[in-house]
Design a protein that fits this description.
6-stranded mixed barrel, alpha+beta, single chain, 15 helices, 415 residues, 19% strand
Length: 415
């Protein structure tokens, strides 16, 4: 559609004239509107990707990439399962665990907790909790000593510190001649960890796997085996492969299934943010429509002359589509440059703004993540630019079609 003549005339119309500065001003604001919308979309989605990456890494500090258990939740020969898992090329390590629930009681404070029995010799291979210790060490968990390690916020809410005693009440019960009484045990706090994720810092307690087996009456058994992979994104594929072959009689789960609700919520959030910020680009595209309608009205006599010289309606339509498309392309390119530059340099741009205005975007005293993270995904960039260009192109159709319908005789009647 865009032949050299249409391209030449369309580009000529984009230049400012002495008698139509208002139209050029609207064209400029449309261009800047598209650039602003594309910049905002790229930057905000990059920040959301950065937060998702940070939280995912913090979740994976505590959650194993792959978990193998049976449907009863009682596995006896866990060493065999661990060896079979480690025989796979993508599995780095495997460790046993016992999962339970209970209530921690200290003085007048009571908190519900998720307990996890771990083996300090194997646990560092499948989680990074040993690297996240605020006080104490993971190796302080000794079998038979009934030591416990708590999340930072959990310990703070109960008023606990290293060496303090805390009582754990389990859902199981003891049957005695005097009746049924709850099963409870006194533990000593030997460590506090902080992974930076609210779920684990406020409700997770670690103990030695042998102590957990005695407490939950699972002597000789574990709840299952946790495994860590060299690439966590291979977990869904490996889960499918293991479920079909080696562990067809077991329940194999991966982290993308156990944390599915959180990742689904993030995906919906990103989609809604994309649609909301796309309205900025849509408003700028509507400005292109108004600009071209005014240009068509202003150029009625020019269109009539072109038609009398032999230009077809298709040629006239192409002329005005060039002008609108150029505004969309320039705005998209400017937005692409601005958005990518800002997303890649957010770590320096945000501190500069904070120093300039004297405030903190994320107060480290409140938020675990005190810096705005940015993770630029090029597929997001191309999607944003493609949608922006498409909106700019679509906005030219009605004004160009209206120009193509101009009748030369009517346009030149009063000239």
């Amino acid at each position: 559609m865009f032949k050299p003549v249409e391209l030449f005339i369309g580009l000529r119309y984009t230049r400012a004239k002495r008698r139509n500065h208002f139209i050029s001003f609207i064209s400029l604001t449309s261009m800047l509107g598209i650039a602003l919308g594309v910049t905002a979309l790229i930057t905000v989605l990059s920040v959301m990707n950065g937060f998702e990456k940070e939280v995912r890494e913090r979740i994976l500090d505590m959650v194993a990439h792959l978990t193998v258990t049976n449907f009863e939740g009682r596995v006896k020969e866990w060493q065999d399962i661990a060896e079979q898992l480690k025989s796979h090329e993508h599995v780095l390590a495997a460790a046993p665990y016992i999962k339970g629930e209970g209530m921690l009681i200290h003085r007048k404070q009571v908190n519900g907790v998720i307990t996890q029995g771990v083996d300090p010799a194997y646990e560092p291979g499948v989680s990074r909790v040993a690297e996240r210790m605020e006080v104490g060490e993971l190796t302080d968990l000794k079998p038979g000593k009934f030591h416990i390690i708590l999340g930072f916020d959990l310990a703070r809410s109960l008023g606990l510190d290293i060496g303090d005693k805390v009582t754990l009440v389990t859902p199981t019960a003891n049957v005695t001649p005097a009746g049924i009484s709850p099963r409870l045990k006194r533990f000593t706090v030997v460590g506090i960890f902080r992974v930076g994720h609210n779920i684990y810092d406020t409700s997770m307690a670690l103990m030695h796997v042998e102590d957990a087996a005695r407490l939950y009456r699972m002597k000789g058994y574990v709840s299952g085996v946790r495994a860590r992979l060299d690439d966590p994104f291979l977990s869904p594929w490996l889960r499918t492969e293991l479920s079909k072959d080696q562990f067809s009689d077991y329940w194999v789960r991966d982290w993308s299934r156990t944390q599915a609700n959180w990742f689904r919520a993030v995906k919906v959030e990103k989609r809604m943010i994309f649609l909301l910020l796309l309205l900025i680009v849509a408003v700028a595209a509507f400005n292109i429509v108004s600009t071209l309608v005014m240009v068509v009205t202003d150029k009625q006599s020019d269109i009539a002359i072109l038609r009398t010289l032999g230009a077809s309606p298709r040629s006239v339509m192409g002329t005005f589509m060039v002008q609108g498309t150029l505004i969309g392309i320039v705005g998209t390119v400017l937005g692409l440059a601005g958005g990518v530059s800002l997303a890649l340099n957010l770590d320096t741009a945000v501190p500069f703004i904070e120093r300039l205005f004297g405030f903190r975007v994320l107060d480290p005293g409140i938020y675990y993540i005190s810096e705005l993270p940015s993770d630029l995904h090029w597929n997001d960039v191309w999607t944003i630019c493609s949608v922006s260009f498409l909106l700019g192109l679509l906005s030219t159709l009605y004004p160009a079609w209206r120009a193509a319908r101009t009748q030369p005789a009517e346009a030149l009647r009063y000239e």
